Amino acid sequence: MRRLILSSLLLSGAAVAQDRPVISVDTLKTVTQTLGSDAFEGRAPTTAGEDKAVAFIIDRFQKAGLKPGNNGGWTQDVPMVEITATDVRPFTVAGKGAPIILDYRRDMVVGTYRVTPRIDLANSEMVFVGYGITAPEKGWDDYAGVDVRGKTVVILVNDPDWQTMGRDGPFEGRAMTWYGRWPYKFENAAKHGAAAALIVHQTEPAAYPWAVVQSSWTGPQLELDEPGDHADQSQVIGWLQQPVAERILTAAGRDLATLTKAAQTKGFKAVPLGLTLSGGFNNMIRRQASKNVIGVLPGTSAPDGYVLYSAHWDHLGRCDAVDGDDICNGALDNASGVAGLVALAEAQGKAGPAKRSIAFLAVTAEESGLLGSGYYAQHPVFPLARTVGGVNMDGLNVTGRSKDFVLVGKGKSEIEDLVVPFVKAQGRYIGEEANPERGGYYRSDHFSFAKLGVPMLDGGSGEDKVVGGKVAGKAASDDYVAHRYHKPADEYDPRWDWTGALEDLTVYYQLGRTLADRPGLWPNWYPTAEFRGIRDKSRKNAQ
Fold it and tell me: pLDDT digits over 329-366, tens only?
């Protein structure tokens, strides 16, 4: 019944939203090229690159006709602490046979959430905890019957059933769940008192090669600056190269493949390895604030209701050099998303105010763990209970038109129902995620809002290209992940084809306009979605 009501509301209010907006290709090109240029030094938060990026975005928001979104100001301060591991001495695995020396960066990467000048880990017992999951609703607990307080846990990446094609399985089969994401695994290890937590890197289930881990987990690391200095977290968090993990388990008289198979079965019991881990490093600590940029197109008759568009402006800044280039420009990821944000602001501004307000949020520190969006969600300028829903953009389609439009994390919210008519009007179809094992739904800023109940669309062009079909689409996606994702090669290319991005942005515009011009429309999560309860509670309290 709820879906029928939504469809009725959509059709009766579709006239405005079905009008095709004029999305400026010049804006997409100019904003992406500017933010992705070397002059912005990769847009790392709290650097000179941030200052330039924030000033540029404010200028473009102003020119688009937006108003300052934070009580007369354009920005929201996000208190952050920067922790840089220095003087990392090789970590040593001991206990059986000759010690195994783990070289920083080559064999492992390590860091910490704790705001402390020194980390020392001495003779910490090692325990293999499978996928490191505690899911009472599924009757699954990899920590059952083992005490890991003060110990080092070795964890597998992704979910136990990630190799299962389709969505059948205790953890949704091929589709990664929140339990498969590395932030969850470190969080759960800390809850169980682990002194150190190391994830075994495997390229396919992680969805990116070791080079991405190496570039993302070395150098300055940002966290929200919160009371307590994160003392409740593990002393050491990090990743192990798969061959190194295999050597460690062999030294323990175990086999990684055999343990992995066992860990994929409900009732798995953690395995003490009879080994210890020692190592340490110093931390350079710097406290400062980064900034979210907020603009708004105030509504007319229902201005206290909000539709939200978001994109992260940050990238990695200076990174591991490739052929002498040490700037990770982040042109696609995510200068292009900010370009889409500006282009939508221009289009919505030209259409004039809607009944509800439309907010545009360019957030910081997505690459550091969704910190900017997380801070906004915890300290919203516009109440989340009055935020209807919206769209997050993290990388636009620059490889030409696609026949399909993919709903990432499909099957979660009624926002999906609203999008379908706009997609079909373009002669496209709703496709399936090509790589659901990558857990895309939990890897970008919409997740910060979803966790607190706000339905946000994460969707866009799939891999079924108009020219070349699925073979061409997969080749383009694989090439980007292998050669440009989180690398200096993610640079603006004047040869990019923006036609697919224009179609996606048209869908985003139409969805946003429909939500903004229908004050009675409140899409919710499906009853089975993990975020339904918090949305129902927040909406009840708002009424």
Answer: 999 999 999 999 999 999 999 999 999 999 999 999 99
Distance, CA of 178 to CA of 130 (rounded, Å)? 16
CATH of the domain at 245: 3.50.30.30
With b meaning 16 or more CB within 10 Å and e meaning fewer, what string describes 82-108?
Answer: bbebeebeebebbbeeeebebebeebb
Residues 413 and 318 in one domain: yes
Residues in a beta bridge with 100: 93
Could you state, in chain order, the average pLDDT of each consecutive group of 10 residues for the chain (543 residues)? 43 49 96 98 95 98 98 97 93 91 95 97 98 92 97 97 85 86 95 98 92 87 92 97 97 97 96 97 95 98 97 93 91 97 98 97 94 96 96 97 94 94 97 84 91 94 96 93 91 98 98 97 88 88 71
3-state secondary structure of 303: strand
Which residue range is the domain that position 166 belongs to?
82-285
- Distance of alpha carbon 157 from alpha carbon 125, whole angstroms: 21
Model pLDDT, residue 19: 65
Cis peptide before 334 (omega within 30 of 0): yes
Condensed to tens digits (0 to 9), the pLDDT of residues 458-467 reads 999 999 999 9
Structural Rg of the chain based on CA atoms: 23
Tell whether 368 is covered by a domain. yes
What does the angle CA 438 – CA 108 – CA 271 come to, to the nearest 5 degrees? 80
Total of domains in the chain: 2
* Domain CATH code at residue 324: 3.40.630.10
* Cβ pair 92, 113 in contact under 8 A: no
Note whether residue 49 is domain-resident.
yes
Q: Residue 123 to residues 52, 195, 232: CA-CA distances in angstroms?
A: 46, 11, 20
CA neighbor of 174 nearest in space, from 184, 164, 159:
164
Q: Strand pairing partners for 41? A: none
Residue 215 parent element (H or E)? helix 210-217
Task: Collect all residues with Cβ–Cβ distance below 8 Å to 124 and sequence separation of at least 6.
Answer: 150, 151, 152, 195, 196, 276, 277, 278
Compute the distance between CA of residue 297 and CA of residue 308 in angstroms, rounded to an integer.
11
Question: Which of 465, 367, 457, 359 has the alpha carbon at shortest distance from 416?
Answer: 457
Cα 199 from Cα 177, distance rounded (Å): 16
pLDDT of residue 112: 96
Same-domain status, 91 and 200:
yes
Query: Do 307 and 355 touch, CB atoms closer than 8 A?
Result: no
pTM of this structure: 0.82
